[in-house]
Design brief:
This protein is of the alpha/beta class.
């Protein structure tokens, strides 16, 4: 029996993507409000909510505004036009910002004061000694860097760069008749100087800090010596940073992206932040110059741009108020003296970062670069770290005469500049560099090493859910597999041939590749569970991802749920699916885990009538991943590793500390912990990985227990 898609695609069954994202940022903010967390961790979470919101405005809100300008009236899956979404977002983002600042002012500042860290909020509150220190600091360190810019008939309004912090001022001037005139002036708070200025400790030994903009405001009259400064106030703008590139027209993608990056600084202003106390006359000038409407002005009760709190996190002397940094554990299967290729030949190896070290992935490329038997290395790069050991190893491999092919995705948002630098460096070293595929982002995470051995050519492959970035691998939870499976090796070769020469193989062995047939495969797997449920068999789906907003996939999950399939989803960010719709989604649970590490792995489990199928990979269940990107999802086939992955899912389903559970009304609530053993999945995996590395387990299945993903506990 086929199901009717129309039955499951009614707009009221879906949550708008952008509003769901705001809910996610609220969950991050709830961590900043959680008094059981170490104080400095709460600062960090508040900082993350601020940088998240910036990116959201520059990309998502900007693209909605573009739609309104273009008179695009088509509705989204929840039946909302771009105009309706902007209206709803204006309200909820302002509420979010209010909560950010009440958290900062009412909770965090008093708590910091209690532990001996005083933030001087206004320069007027400085003591006499502090004033002297600040003024000297201004003269010596700040003044030489500043560029005050005035606006008058001869000087137009200066171009204000995206995301920069500025101080606006009204300057009193007298005209020829002696009548007072007010002129606008502005000065950028230099990003080359630290935003947090540490003052001498007070008499009680407390650490005292002030923000750089307060130092400049106190001394701003020194920039306009011949005129009186009437009022000053910080402001900040957010511009449209969504790159629009017509790839068919762009003869040279590299040059086109470089050109577009410059434009990012000067796109349309979509948000203006000002401090609440800003003089109305000053605000009016900014409104007119930026052509900005009331709903896009955020009047803020506190310092603009809370990302400075990440710098505050770095202040020394407060380690007891931070979570002790976790040191990733060794991989038990690799704790011997064998070289990495021998280790892989002994059986597939599962990697679970950051609980296990990322070093084997780096080592895989480094050993391949030096090994005289290695003939070729091929790798996709999406986001890499600032000083990437993988990049160095690839360059070294090319210099050693190996065939090195690297796909560098130039369209990785906000990493474009970084990737252009790497791409040029790799080309110089003699690597073949491919700049992605026209019209598609290459988001897959795959490395192929081709090696000559006694029995002929053997292919070694690393497949992962996260980027080849040794820095983020310490902060993001990701999974990967090292294998020398011949069939996966064949597919890996086919992937690179497809990327470099656009030749698609007739058949694929194991890898599920988007945009070719990943969507169909997932729909097929969900359909099998639905049919099994209708026939009275056990049916079960557990899926973990970053975002879920694909209408076709959600409709298929609804149809499966209606047939009786038990579905548990672990979705960190956006989730457009609604739970608890009678007869539609009563068998679905959704939880979001927000913890010390960023949940990033994608894992998909299907019971498949006892022939359990497990996949991991780079793709979320979003239209862009399934239709507009080159993505790879790979099967986990080794029985021990299967048990291991089921164990990972099970522990996350049992998390009752960091899990937020989606409710039928669209809100998220923390699990009721009363009378329960507390389980923080991230802490559990840290402890487990450390313990296993100590005892060097020969088997990978956790403590020989067999884990069958049970149903999520009733919340």
């Amino acid at each position: 029996m086929q199901w009717n898609e129309k039955e499951y695609t009614k707009p009221e069954y879906y949550t708008n993507r952008e509003l769901s994202w705001v809910k996610f940022n609220e969950r991050v903010l709830s961590e900043a409000r959680d008094k059981s967390l170490p104080l400095f961790e709460r600062l960090k979470f508040l900082s993350i909510t601020a940088s998240n919101l910036d990116e959201f405005f520059m990309i998502r809100v900007a693209s909605l505004k573009d739609m309104v300008h273009a008179k695009y009236t088509k509705t989204d899956i929840a039946g909302m036009t771009a105009k309706e979404q902007l209206k709803a977002l204006s309200k909820v983002t302002k509420e979010l910002v209010d909560t950010q600042y009440s958290t900062y002012n009412r909770s965090l500042l008093p708590a910091l004061k209690k532990i001996g860290l005083k933030v001087v909020e206004h320069h007027e509150n400085l003591t006499k000694e502090q004033q002297e220190f600040v003024d000297t600091f201004f003269e010596d360190e700040v003044y030489p860097v500043l560029t005050p810019m005035a606006m008058d008939s001869a000087r137009p309004f200066p171009l204000i760069r995206n995301k920069t912090l500025n101080i606006g001022a009204l300057i009193s001037k007298k005209d020829k008749k002696g009548k007072e005139e007010l002129e606008f002036a502005t000065v950028q708070v230099p990003s080359v100087l630290p935003r947090i200025v540490q003052l001498p400790d007070d008499k009680d030994g407390n650490t005292v800090v002030i923000l750089l903009e307060e130092v400049i405001e106190r001394n701003i009259n020194k920039l306009f010596l011949s005129n009186a400064v009437v009022c000053t106030c910080p402001y900040r703008i957010m511009r449209n940073a969504d790159l629009t590139i017509d790839e068919d027209e762009a003869a040279d993608l590299l040059k086109e992206i470089q050109k577009q990056l410059k434009k990012r600084q000067w796109g349309e202003v979509i948000r203006l932040e000002v401090e609440e106390r800003m003089d109305e006359r000053l605000l009016k000038i900014l409104e007119e110059e930026f052509q900005i409407k009331d709903e896009d002005i955020f009047k803020i009760n506190g310092p603009l741009d809370l990302t400075f709190l990440m710098k505050m996190y770095g202040l020394s002397g407060f380690d007891e108020f931070k979570t002790k940094p976790y040191v990733p554990a060794q991989v038990p299967a690799m704790m011997n003296d064998e070289d990495i290729f021998t280790q892989i030949r002994q059986g597939d190896i599962l990697l679970h970062h950051p609980y296990m070290t990322f070093y084997p992935v780096v080592d895989f490329v480094q050993q391949a670069a030096k090994d005289p038997n290695v003939l070729a290395i091929k790798q996709t790069l999406y986001r890499v770290s600032g000083n990437s050991p993988i990049i160095k190893a690839l360059a070294q491999a090319a210099e050693n005469g190996k065939q090195v092919t690297v796909l560098v995705e130039l369209k990785a948002r906000f990493d474009e500049e970084n990737n252009i630098v790497w791409a040029k460096m790799l080309e110089k070293a003699g690597c073949h560099v491919i700049y992605g595929v026209i019209g598609l982002k290459t988001h897959s995470k795959i490395t192929l090493v081709v090696r000559r051995e006694e029995n002929g050519i053997r292919r070694y492959v690393h497949l992962g859910t996260g980027n080849y970035n040794d820095s983020t691998a310490k902060l993001y939870t990701d999974c990967g597999i090292l294998t020398c499976s011949a069939r996966i090796g064949e597919d890996a070769t086919a992937v690179f041939n497809m990327l470099s020469g656009y030749s698609e193989p007739r058949t694929w062995n194991k890898l599920v590749v988007a945009p070719l047939w990943m969507r169909d495969r997932f729909l097929h797997l969900i359909e099998i569970e639905r049919k099994n449920a209708l026939e009275g068999r056990r049916a079960r789906i557990v899926a973990k991802m970053n975002s879920l907003c694909d209408r076709g996939i959600i409709a298929a999950l609804y149809a499966a749920s209606a047939a009786g399939v038990k579905i548990d989803l672990i979705v960190r960010g956006i989730c457009c699916l609604k739970v608890g719709i009678p007869g539609i989604s009563e068998n679905i649970t959704v939880r979001s885990i927000v913890g010390n590490f960023l949940e990033h792995s994608r894992i998909f489990y299907f019971y498949s009538d006892g022939n359990e199928e497990i996949f991991m990979g780079s793709a979320d269940w979003m239209p862009r991943n399934l239709d507009k990107r080159v993505e790879i999802v790979f099967p986990v086939e080794d029985e021990n590793l299967k048990e291991e992955v089921k164990h990972i899912l099970q522990i996350q389903l049992e998390d009752n500390v960091k899990a937020h559970i989606l409710q039928p009304d669209g809100t998220y609530e923390k699990v009721d912990k009363r009378g329960k053993m507390l389980l923080n999945s991230q802490d559990f995996f840290c402890e487990e990985a450390t313990r296993r590395a100590k005892i060097k387990l020969p088997e990978t299945a956790a403590d020989k227990r067999i884990f069958v993903p049970a149903e999520a506990p009733e919340e």
